[in-house]
Amino acid sequence: MSTAVGSFVSRKDGHQKVTGQARYAADHPITNVAHAVAICSTVASGRVTAIDSSAAEKMPGFLAILHHGNAPKLFRPVNNFESASKPGEIRVVFEDDKVHYVGQYLAVVIAETLQQAQHTASLVKISYEAAPPVIETEQAMSTLYDPSEFFGEKLKAQRGDPAGQFASADVKHEADYFTPIEHHNPMEPSASMAVWDGDEVTLFETTQWVVGARNTVAETLGIPEEKVHVISPFIGGGFGCKGFTWPHSVLSAIAAKKTGRSVKLNLTRKQMFSACGHRSETRQKIKLGAAKDGKLTSVQHETMVQTSTVDEFVEACGTTSRFLYSCPNMGITHHAVRVNIATPTPMRAPGENPGLFAMESAMDELAYKLNIDPVQLRIINHADKNEHTNQPWSSKYLKECYQIAGEKFGWAKRNPKPRSMRDGKLLVGWGMATATYPGMRSPGAAKVRILQDGTAQVISATQDMGGGTYTTMTQVVSDVLGIPVDKIRPALGDSHLPPAPVSGGSMTTASVLPAVKQAATEALKKLVQVAIANPQSPLHGKKEDEVTAANGRVFVKGSAPESGITYEQALLANNQAAAEGESFMAPGKEREKYAFQSWGAQFVEVKVDPEIAKATVSRVVSAFDIGKVINRKTAQSQAYSGITMGVGMALMEHTVYDHRDGGIITSNLADYALPVHADIHSIDVLFVDKPDPHIDPYIGARGVGEITITGVAAAVANAIYHATGKRIRELPITPDKLLG
Ligand code: MOS
Predict the structure, then answer these.
(1) Secondary structure class of 177 (helix, strand, coil)
(2) pLDDT tens profile 184-207
């Protein structure tokens, strides 16, 4: 029996990537190309009074300029996540003369060459009537409101009497936590190339959702969705900023239409800081009440975030606190203010990630007050079911995560006293936190073809952001067909393929692989039918259930595979090109019965140099319960990436705005500090690897993209407290906060 699923399989696309053959959005060869450069607002609030392009239009190579005064009519798309139409910002580009934030697109210039387009764009004079911008939360309090929902989840929840129980608790902890605005900063900036052929447009994109991009662009342009073809075979990271569809994908299309040329539009790194979302700042108040034995009696989580003046996106920090620990009294609320900054968007574990920074820091603080080991405190309050929805967990191995990661880390040797551990002149600290993320799943389709040359194809309009979808699809097919992974060719990232959901919410694996497995099984069934139908076949006349297929051969059940014929022989004998299976699968009633959630434990060692107040994360040991692990190599790789990003969040990342004019001060990779190799040391990743018995009928995997970042920042902050005795509740923990 072949077992590609669950093993350590190298990337199918690895060779293409390291040899430069992988084509990212701007790499596809297109002819008759012209170059577009977007012009962005330099004021944060007000209106455009004039756009003077007279000098620009005289420049050599100039082809066209589009802005609110002359752009074709565009329409607000349906904006429904479920029907796969989701703009990053509901206000349509060039809708009117209003300006809402620095970086808003005001015009796009198209010219023969990139240099001509850049120079021409620099000559366009834009006049504004500027209003004073509102950048800081404190300035925006007049816009304060309570948003009601985040993707169907109510943002206010209560059970029991949280306030009363907090007031009378034996032991209390109350504190405020702050996380700053962060940007995704994928290696590959967003880009869009548009090629019209009559009334149909092909868009080469970098998107986490080819189907969503197709629908959103079609609706914005006001044309049928079958007239838009989105192609995105390789994505240089996304982390959420390529999930919803941002205006550049529409700009390239209207620029190409206007000029009758193919148009290439690349975003600059600076534009990546205003044109495709960010993680909102969060201000969170946590109140925990506990009995002396450590049992929580009250959990309260109040969150304040920013959203934009044109749309709503809420960083739902408190939703996890409804069920993270067992507690009869719980209250969560969310507030938002509107600022002159572009609309936030999902960024790796939106809500859970900053939410767990606050909650898991607070649990550590409570553990110190109670004089209970932080792991023990979490075990005391383990939630055996989801107390918010009152559902049993589909499966949950959180205690195993604490146990296996804690053991590997050496947690038992920890002296809990702050400043008690040293490495020479360095202060050593050990901290931990719980990790968690929902086990989402959406409808997905796939097709599998067994070909007459003994190879197979597997196709789906899903995406591979670098996480490994190409590889995992072939692993599933390999096990069903019994042929090696290298004989299976995957295709994805193309809206013409069978539809799949957004590669967001860590749900690609859980949504697509069950359909792949069913399609492969169906293809094999077709192959068996071919083999028994053909009079030349040794299997001719057998009943379908008497025959089986494995190891690339069809044969009579119970006999040796060698007694049968190969897939090629079966197809060739029938003069048939392929046996094909197709599947569409959707989650069902199991979603009403069970709560699906992934779990993990992050253990972190920091070393703090007291002379320069600098913290280094010297060691991380993490364990995750993500259901079945499909590919140990790519799953581990996802964890390295999530943990690294978590270290960045803890110690470095922070987008700084100029509160006077709304300009983005850190809009480049020199000023926006991110971890590099020198910042990252030992990371050990463990998986419980027990299939989720309910998430789907075939696979049992819950996905690994986002859970790996959750809890990291809290574990780092907790380790820093242990090392230094300083409790830092404001990210990032830069040297200035550790001084003094
Ligand atoms: Mo993710 S932040 O759901 O792409």
Answers:
(1) strand
(2) 999 999 999 999 999 999 999 999
> 473 in helix, strand or coil?
helix
Query: Which SS3 state, helix, strand or coil, does residue 259 take?
Result: helix
Evaluate if residue 537 carries a pLDDT over 90.
Answer: no
CA distance 265 to 256: 10
Average pLDDT over residues 584-610: 98
Dist. CA 737–CA 631, nearest whole Å: 40
Q: Does any ligand 1 atom lie closer than 6 A to the CB of residue 505?
A: yes
Beta strands (DSSP E) in 464-511 are: 488-491
CA–centroid distance, 56 to ligand 1, in Å, is: 39
pLDDT at 720 over 80: yes
pLDDT > 70: what percent of the chain?
Answer: 100
d(CA 401, CA 417) in angstroms, rounded, equals 24
Which ligand 1 atom sits closest to the C-alpha of 705?
1
The residues carrying an active-site annotation are: 706
Q: Does the pLDDT at position 438 exceed 90? A: yes
Express each pLDDT in 270-328 by its tens digit.
Answer: 999 999 999 999 999 999 999 999 999 999 999 999 999 999 999 999 999 999 999 99
Tell me the two tokens of residue 425. Answer: 């002149």
Q: Which atom of ligand 1 is nearest to the CA of 503?
A: 4
SS3 per-residue string spanning 408-463? HHCHHHCCCCCCCEEECCEEEEEEEEEEEEECCCCCEEEEEEEECCCCEEEECECC
Mean pLDDT of 617-644: 98
Q: What is the model's pLDDT at position 274?
A: 98
What is the distance in A from the centroid of ligand 1 to the CA of 229?
23
Mutate to test the pocket of ligand 1, among 598, 706, 707, 709 (most ligand atoms within 8 A of CB): 706
What is the rounded distance in angstroms from the CA atom of residue 60 to the CA atom of residue 111? Answer: 8
**CB of residue 243 inside a 6 A radius of ligand 1:** yes
pLDDT in tens, 207-235: 999 999 999 999 999 999 999 999 999 99
| Res 1: pLDDT | 47
Residue 649 DSSP SS3: helix
Question: What SS3 class is residue 175?
Answer: strand
Cα 511 to Cα 498: distance, rounded to the nearest angstrom: 13
Tens of pLDDT, residue by residue over 37-46, are: 999 999 999 9
Tokens of 640: 């390295």
- Regarding the beta carbon of 346 and ligand 1, being less than 6 Å apart is answered yes
Beta strands, E only, 483-640? 488-491, 547-550, 553-556, 565-566, 578-585, 597-609, 614-625
Residue 2: pLDDT over 70? no
Query: Measured from the CB, is residue 450 less than 6 Å from ligand 1?
Result: no
| Shortest-distance atom of ligand 1 to CA 345 | 2
Long-range pairs, 366-371, Cβ under 8 A, ≥24? 366/171, 366/173, 366/288, 366/290, 368/416, 369/171, 369/172, 369/173, 370/171, 370/290, 370/292, 370/294
Q: In terms of C-beta density within 10 A (0-12 exposed, 13-18 middle, 19 or more buried), how is residue 659 classed? A: middle
Task: Tell me the pLDDT tens digit for each residue of 100-111.
Answer: 999 999 999 999
Per DSSP, the three-state class of 257 is helix
pLDDT at 511 over 90: yes
Largest CA distance in the chain: 87
The number of the ligand 1 atom at minimal distance from the alpha carbon of 350 is 2
How many CA atoms lie within 13 Å of 634's alpha carbon, on the beta-carbon side? 28
CB-count exposure of residue 138 (10 Å: 0-12, 13-18, 19+): exposed
**Statement: residue 740 has pLDDT above 80:** no
Determine if residue 260 is left, alpha or beta; phi over 0 gives left, psi from -120 to 50 gives alpha, anything else beta. left
Neighbours of 663 (CB within 10 A): 18
Residue whose CB lies within 8 A of the most ligand 1 atoms, among 348, 464, 507, 707, for a mutation test: 348
